[in-house]
Amino acid sequence: MKWSGAGWLAVRWLLAGVFLWAGCSKLSDAAGFAASIHQFRMVPDPVVNSLALSLPPLEILCGLALFAGPWKRPAAFGLMILCAIFLAALLSAAARGLSVDCSCFGAASAESISASILRDVLLFATAAAIWARLCRTTHVPAFKERHRAL
Amino acid sequence: MVESNASGIADHGLALRFLGFARADAVWLALAALASFAFGIAADRLLRPSPVGLHFRATRHLSLPSTVEAVTAEEVAQLFANPAAIALDARPHLLFDLGHLPGARSLSRENFEKDYSALEPVLRSAVGPLILYCSDIACEDAARVVELLQQKGLSSLVLFAGGIAEWEAAGHPLEVIP
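The joint structure predicted for all components is written out below.
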C-alpha cells in the first residue's frame, strides 16, 4: 500500500514536471509556438498570438497545482482536458493531411505528427488515471454522510 | 435486502462522485483558463511590437478577409507542384532582379499599376493560386498588393508572409536573372 502511494506520487510529480517543462519551453519561444498554432489552421489569425501566450501559462498553472496543495485534482482534470484538446487538434491536422510541428516542447522539439499523437495519448491516459485516483481518495464527509443515510 | 441496496447505491454513488468532482474541477479549470487568457491577451498587447506581435502583423494590420490564405515556405513549395500556381514578387524591381522565388513574376507595390497592366492578361486567365510575397514578415508590400488585387476583383490569392527570408531559411533556392 505504501509502495503504491509512493508510485502514484512519483507519476503525479513526473506529469507535473512534464507540463511545467512544456509550458516554460513554449513561453520562451512564443513566436515559434504562434507559428505552430497558425499551421493548424483551426483558429482565426487575430487569436493566434493571444492563444500562444495563454496556453503555456495554463500548462504551468496546472503543472504547479499538480505538485502539491488543495488543487491537485482540478489540475489533473485540467491537464486531461488540455491533452484532449491537443489530441483533437493533432488528429484533425493529420486527417487534413497537414504537415505540422506541434512545438509541444518548444521549437527544438521537431518530431513526426504520429509521435506527437502517441505521446499525447500517453499523457492523457496518465492524467486521467491520476484524476480518477484523486477522486477515489478525496475525502468528502458530506457526500459519504448523504449516501450512508440511503 | 439491505446488502443489495447498499451495493447498488455504492456503484451508483461512485459515478455520481466522479460527476460531481468533474463539475467542480471544470469550474476551477474555467477560472484558470480565464486567468491565462487574460494574461495572454494582455501580454500580446503589451509586448507589441514583439517577435510574437510581428508574426501576423501584415495580415492583422490590413484586416485581410478570411478568403486570403496565409501560407508557410513549405506550403509554397507544395503549391509550386501545381504548374498553374503563379508567384508574384511585391518588392521593388531591383530586389527582384537580385533574386526571387523560382518562376516568380514582378508585381511591385511601388509600380503596381504599370506592372499590373503588363501582367493583367496572365493574372485574369490564371487557374492556379496567386502567391504574393515580399522580403520577410516585417514587410507589408505583399499584403498591400493583395489588397490592391482584391480591389481589381482577383481571387485565389495566397499570402506568403514569411517571404524571401523564410524561403531561404527553409533551404530553398532563389532564381536570379542573369
